[in-house]
Design goal:
The chain is α+β, with helices and mostly antiparallel strands. It has one domain (about 5-110): Nuclear Transport Factor 2, Chain: A (Roll), CATH 3.10.450. The protein has helices spanning about 5-15, 15-20, 20-30, 45-50, and strands at about 30-35, 40-45, 60-70, 75-85, 85-100, 100-110. Strands 2-1-6-5-4-3 form a six-stranded mixed sheet. The radius of gyration is 13 Å and the shape is globular.
Amino acid sequence: MQKSELQYLEEWLLTIDARKSRAELDKLIADDFKEFSSSGRVWSKTSILDELPLQQPIGSAVISNFEELELVDGYVLVTYQLDLAGTISLRSSVWRKTHDGWRIFFHQGTTRSE
């Protein structure tokens, strides 16, 4: 099965190259971005740009069960499972199509418990 553009973008945001580049993050993250992380922290675009490039590499990241649902024209909800170095979480993002391409403006991660 061929990956969609949004799956490539979600995977790209997990790479060290994207996470260490303020310019790459700025290009893909909408100005009104909000994230509720699996730890309960609330992130904004500013906090992501200030802190993410300083973090240590996250280790191996594998996305599975990737699904997309168009909410309205130009807005897509993506959901998937992320295995991040053995920790499983459920993820959701909302992407908005702009004249410059796709921008993420909402993300939530929830650690999966058995």
